[in-house]
Design goal:
mainly alpha, 2 helices
């Protein structure tokens, strides 16, 4: 609970009189479902990229190991 405001042309009475557009519940649910699907897709893509990065790191380590132990010749 407070009185007044920091902006001289905005006060609690003005805010109380403001209208906020709220879509119907069905539309809100459709929006939420769409966002959930998109979030799942993004999470799946992130997981795929992380797996690829891990595979590339393992491959890099094996190449370095083979080069250091002389199993693979390094091109000049």
């Amino acid at each position: 609970m407070s009185f007044g405001g920091t902006q001289p042309n905005i006060n609690a009475d003005l805010i109380k009189q403001s209208w906020i557009a709220v879509p119907p519940l069905e539309e809100q649910q459709a929006i939420a479902e769409h966002l959930d699907r998109k979030t799942d897709e993004i999470d799946e893509l992130i997981a795929i990229k992380r797996d690829k990065i891990a595979s590339l790191r393992d491959y890099r380590r094996s190449l370095i190991f083979e080069a250091v132990t002389g199993k693979t010749q390094i091109p000049e």
